[in-house]
Write a structure and sequence with these properties.
The protein is an alpha/beta fold. It contains 18 helices and 17 strands. α13 links the parallel β14 and β15. α5 crosses α6 and α13 crosses α14. The longest helix is centred in the N-terminal third of the chain and has 24 residues. The radius of gyration is 22 Å and the shape is globular. It starts with about 25 loop residues before the first helix and ends with a helix.
């Protein structure tokens, strides 16, 4: 294992490797946004006609690549083997070994923890790569270099190296009676190559699903993070918490930072630690949140890290669970930088935490009425969301809820019931989305007949939810008199963000789209 990083020490790749973009559903939503408009939309900078045209040409090529990758087995449908990933990595010269890795697994909080860790590492003056999933607006969000989605040109450059290798691995695997590489495997290979080609010093890599057999588990990580484990993806990871925990603990190698866990999951992790000889650092024992309070736009907390205390830390994310995610990220970066023997420099630490973001996680995307989006898609996520709402947004809420068909919708709705006055059920563009009427029937069992409406199209459902919120607010001048919460899946959060113009991907930053969105939300503004 390489020694600790003490400062900026760029580790260039050893060689030049031989290198929702909206899905169709997201594109349709963007087109339909001509019927909606937010009073607080994202400002879209103007570009020259030449730049705009060049970007459009590159974007068309990225979309073409993405459409081809989408034809593969989806990321939730994986074959339990790392053979295809190992073959691809070997053919490419093991790009994932050219940088340090923080590997993040768990059920809830993976993306936020990974994003905070990336921000902290970058604040130390190191070049970073960040691999997360799923994306909200553009596939390029899944691969971030120095905190920004990979450029169109770099995405295509990486694909020019990866595509032929993927074809070769497919041929070998299918000839032996196995499957072709999956959607997630291909994007993971693409991410590893892009990080090596940048080159980055450190990559923060989020597991797609599970751990042991996840495509990302070909890395030899310096630090592993296990966020809280709960029941989810039971069709693929197992029907018991023990089975799920065993799968997620499969990333543990050397030094594991462990979040708050149910007793059953903790016991499974302890067994894995004994098997590997890894050293564990547990939240609440080896590091902990010492205090926490609300602040404008987020919260302030005090933290005892592995090597020192951090005071008056401002985090622009809501909820106790996000403070705990920041604590996990802090401990992991302390281990990365100095084996946990030295605190992170105060100024850089505060900058790293303060600038960390996690779009789609209890995010305000519109004012008057307030519209919140959150990616909670299971019981544990919904419970954390409700606790954060009680603390940060104690206002009457209309729920806009859509779930995926394999999720426990009744449990999720039951957790949300205390904080929602009414519910509008709908669906995202995902092929896995539950039918709105079926979800509505479940919602009626939880909320009662009078508190539930079913609206098939998401844009119509959003309009209706906002109408209900405005009716509920009456003549109140306060922007916090009422609000809308869009939740139930990552895809619902993503598509509502697109409809309200809150997506940050530069995929959408051009004058034509900006003008279309400026005309867009007349149905709301005209009322």
């Amino acid at each position: 294992m390489a020694g600790p990083l003490k400062g900026v020490d760029p580790a260039a790749a050893t060689s030049r490797f031989p290198d929702p973009v909206p899905s169709d559903g997201a594109e349709a939503l963007a087109a339909r946004s001509s019927t909606l408009r937010s009073d607080a939309s994202v400002a879209i900078p103007r570009e020259s006609a030449v730049d705009h045209k060049a970007d459009e040409l590159l974007e068309d090529q990225v979309k073409a690549v993405y459409r081809e990758i989408l034809k593969r087995a989806p990321e939730h449908d994986f074959a339990p083997s790392l053979d295809r990933m190992r073959a691809a990595m070997e053919l490419l010269g093991e790009p994932q070994r050219t940088y340090r890795v923080i590997h993040v697994a768990g059920t809830n909080g993976k993306t936020s923890t990974a994003r905070i860790a990336e921000s902290l590492v970058r604040a130390q003056g190191l070049r970073t790569g960040l691999l997360t999933s799923p994306h909200l607006s553009s596939v390029r969000e899944r691969i971030a270099i120095d905190g920004q989605p990979i450029s169109r040109a770099d995405f295509l450059d990486a694909w020019s190296l990866v595509g032929p290798v993927v074809d070769l691995v497919d041929q070998r695997s299918t000839a032996a009676g196995g499957p072709a590489m999956s959607f997630f495997e291909v994007l993971t290979v693409l991410g590893f190559v892009a990080c090596a080609d940048a080159p980055v010093d450190v990559a923060i890599v989020e597991v797609g699903m599970g751990g042991t057999w996840d495509a990302t588990n070909v890395v030899e990580s310096s630090v592993q993070i296990i966020t809280p484990i709960a029941r989810d993806h039971e069709h693929w990871l197992g029907s018991t918490l023990e089975a799920i925990a065993a799968e997620k603990a499969g990333i543990i190698r050397t030094r594991a930072v462990i979040g708050d866990q149910p007793a059953i999951a903790a016991a499974v992790i302890e067994e894995k630690l004994l098997q590997t000889g890894a050293t564990a650092y547990w939240l609440g024992r080896d590091f902990e949140i010492l205090g926490r309070g609300m602040a404008v736009g987020g919260q302030i907390f005090r933290l005892r890290g592995l090597a020192g205390e951090y005071e008056e830390v401002a985090l622009s994310l809501f909820g106790a669970h996000q403070a705990e995610n920041a604590a996990l990220a802090t401990a992991a970066v302390e281990l990365l930088m100095s084996d946990g023997t030295e605190p992170l420099p105060g100024g850089a630490y505060l900058e790293g935490i303060e600038t960390a973001t996690s779009p789609g996680r209890l995010e305000v995307v519109r004012q008057a009425p307030t519209v919140l989006v959150d990616s909670a898609h299971n019981l544990a996520g919904a419970e954390a969301l409700v606790a954060a709402l009680d603390e940060a947004f104690p206002l009457p809420l209309i729920g806009l809820v859509g779930v995926l068909a394999d999720k426990d919708a009744e449990a999720l709705l039951g957790a949300l019931e205390p904080v929602l006055k009414q519910v509008v059920t709908s669906r995202s563009a995902s092929a896995r989305a539950a039918e709105p009427e079926e979800l509505g029937a479940i919602a009626r069992e939880v909320f009662g007949e009078d508190r539930v409406e079913v609206v098939e199209r998401l844009d119509d459902a959003l309009v209706r939810a906002i109408e209900l919120a405005e009716i509920d607010a009456g003549d109140s001048p306060s922007p916090l008199a009422t609000g809308v919460l869009a939740t139930g899946s990552v895809t619902i959060a993503a598509e509502v963000r697109i409809l309200l113009g809150a997506e940050r991907s530069d995929t959408y930053r051009h004058p034509a789209r900006g003008e279309a969105q400026s005309r867009a939300f007349g149905r709301i503004r005209a009322r």
